[in-house]
Design goal:
The complex is a heterodimer of chains A (about 180) and B (about 300). Chain A is mostly helical and about 180 residues long. Helix content of chain A is about 55%, strand content about 0%. Chain B is built from 15 helices and seven strands. In chain B, helix 12 links the parallel strand 6 and strand 7. The longest helix of chain B has 17 residues. The chains are: A mainly alpha (about 180), B alpha/beta (about 300).
Chain lengths: ~180, ~300
Amino acid sequence: MKKNDNGFLNQVEDKCGHLLGGCFHCMACSSGCPAVEIMDYYPNQIIRMIQFGMKEEVLKSKTIWVCVGCYACVAQCPNRIHIPHMMDALREIALEEGVEPGEPDIWAFHREFLKQVDKRGRVYELEFMMRYKLATGSYFNDVGAGLKMIKHGRLELLPTKVRKLKEIRSMGDYFDGRKR
Amino acid sequence: MVEKDKLPENQIFNKEHSRLYYYPGCSLMSSARELGESLFAMAKLVGSWVEELKDWNCCGSSPAHSVNQDYALLLAGRNLILAERQGIDDLYVTCPSCFVRLRTAENTLRHAPVKNDILEEAIGKRYDGTVRLKFFLEVLTDSRRELFKDAVVNPLKGLKPVLYFGCLLTRPEWITGFDVLPYEAELRSFVDSLGVETKRWGYAKQCCGAHLAVTKPELADTQVDKIRDQAKRSGANCIISFCPLCQVNLELRGSKDTRLPVFYISELIGLACKLKNAGSWLKKHLVDPIPLLEENKLL
């Protein structure tokens, strides 16, 4: 039988800066969550699993990637448990510890977005969408939507960039560990 | 449009706020260019000159804080440092999502010196905590609101919008600093001053799916359908959005039979005040708003 990690609760609490012990599973968060239908565990279940030390299950879950951070849960939580920050911390831990993301496409979205930021300091939406499609192999999904955006002049054809790119790169080191 | 020479001089040259510095954010340069143009036109209308934060960078948006909190802090933090270097006291932010990211970083940097150390290490300067971050609509202070009301020459009678605040316009209130209910009431009364008939509904803060519209389009479709369906049930014939991403999602996603035009608040300002470029913004819509506007003789 798999051993649970009893230090996991503290690890997550330290990382996100919030205490997760106050949850009494009223499920206000899960009821109001806009993305709950494509989650494999409800947000409050994730909290319980963290309390039980079910580290592997939590870090491999789809739920932590699906959360968009809309703050509906924390706005409704009677105990003000900051679930969006908790999810941020869980994703960060999952990446640090080399856990395969439960939603590879969403990770690809974040990764490609941040590559754009690192490259120019700003996001060039057209290239970002292309790169996301290359990374996920979803070449033909949503082409109509993209063309519509271009047709209506909603995507800029040329990128702009930050002048002091050195500063951007030096910040990027914190993200991808070039320095570490 | 109101001619400037008809306004009392003290209202035009309000020295204190005559120059506004703004943080545009990435989407204002592309998918939401008209949001920027119309907001700046609004600022000029009440006598302000707008100027961009020089050399700004992406605030990190959802991806940065989703995978690395320190990186998110640094990206947002650099903009604060720039504002300090450029001697900016009030920085107006045009996108609700950038606003929350920048305010989150500002808050953290002021209260956690450890985090300021990281910023100093990365770009060689600490944040001193002197920048006040404001949402762009705060340009319309009470006295300017009166000035603005005079500029409404084409009241938008016949438009029945619902206000779609989205996730981040007021939430989380301990970050945005807004007292949610009074603030929402204020926005509503401001929108009403454009001559529209605002409908009440319960979906003002129901998430549009945000970036899941790209990775999980089916989910965004369901969300958008629910939102537009509710809007129609409340008797609305259009939606007012404050956020570039919400605007795109609400027009682009969802099934055909629930479609509704989604205006940025500032576009309506442009129409109501008959600003020069207002007509050109309308072409960028993915759901054509022109039939609705023509039907009500607003063009």
